[in-house]
Amino acid sequence: IEFQQMKSFCEKPCIIASAKGIYLTDVYGKRYLDGLSGIYVANIGHGNEQVIEAIRKQQERAFFVAPLHAVADITIRYAKRLSEITPGPLNTLKLVSGGSEATETAIKFARQYHRQSGSPAKYKVLSLYKGYHGATLGALSATGLAGSRKSVFGPFLEGFLHLPPPTCFTCPYSLSYPSCDALCARMLDYLIVNEGPESVAAVMIEPIGNTGGIVTPPPQYLPIIRETCTKHNVILVFDEIITGMGRTGN
Ligand SMILES: Cc1ncc(COP(=O)(O)O)c(C=O)c1O
């Protein structure tokens, strides 16, 4: 992995031979409890028989349908079922292969939307320090982590700015909730106004931060962010790569 040194890994590599349920087994037969479920991608367990059977059946029917030319019937069924469980009117889907591709696609959507709806100068993307949005260069530009995950890969894309996060346990403004009146959320308006609302395309945040520390914002936070984005015609993108698909229990 690009942000870890291979040298120390190669001295004592962990090489997994198989996985079932919540356990991984290495090439020497040692068993590990997979406490992170992959990194959340195997949250219904490794080697799930229903998943294996569904993949096998589909491989027999059609291996790949190029989206340039057509769509697979199973993709339409999947999209329909997914839009039945997503909230409210969230029923326009673009299916991609991973988190970084998803966040970059969202950024492209936001810019395209503004181009096609009379605000072509909106291109900037605002996100949070400590936020993580992926490892590819666009997603990494939105990522707000310093250190090995980001620093050595710069320079990053132009037009990506960051705000202090709602880390109440170590408040960037040295204030306490609720007397702070959610200053960290209100600073979004300040940033947009001072960057020029005509230049800001999107705000991207994790509803609950993960990689930079588990950051659950105070109750006022997200409504203020929502209101501010609406006020300035800025697309609000929730990066739910970690929190989506029932992983918070909902
Ligand atoms: C919130 C968030 N967004 C995006 C990503 C990037 O996902 P991927 O590693 O699938 O590209 C991650 C990965 O952990 C993530 O935690």
UniProtKB/TrEMBL annotation:
<keyword id="KW-0663">Pyridoxal phosphate</keyword>
<protein>
    <recommendedName>
        <fullName>Aspartate aminotransferase family protein</fullName>
    </recommendedName>
</protein>
<comment type="similarity">
    <text>Belongs to the class-III pyridoxal-phosphate-dependent aminotransferase family.</text>
</comment>
<dbReference type="InterPro" id="IPR015421">
    <property type="entry name" value="PyrdxlP-dep_Trfase_major"/>
</dbReference>
<dbReference type="Pfam" id="PF00202">
    <property type="entry name" value="Aminotran_3"/>
</dbReference>
<dbReference type="GO" id="GO:0008483">
    <property type="term" value="F:transaminase activity"/>
</dbReference>
<dbReference type="InterPro" id="IPR015422">
    <property type="entry name" value="PyrdxlP-dep_Trfase_small"/>
</dbReference>
<dbReference type="GO" id="GO:0030170">
    <property type="term" value="F:pyridoxal phosphate binding"/>
</dbReference>
<dbReference type="InterPro" id="IPR015424">
    <property type="entry name" value="PyrdxlP-dep_Trfase"/>
</dbReference>
<dbReference type="InterPro" id="IPR005814">
    <property type="entry name" value="Aminotrans_3"/>
</dbReference>
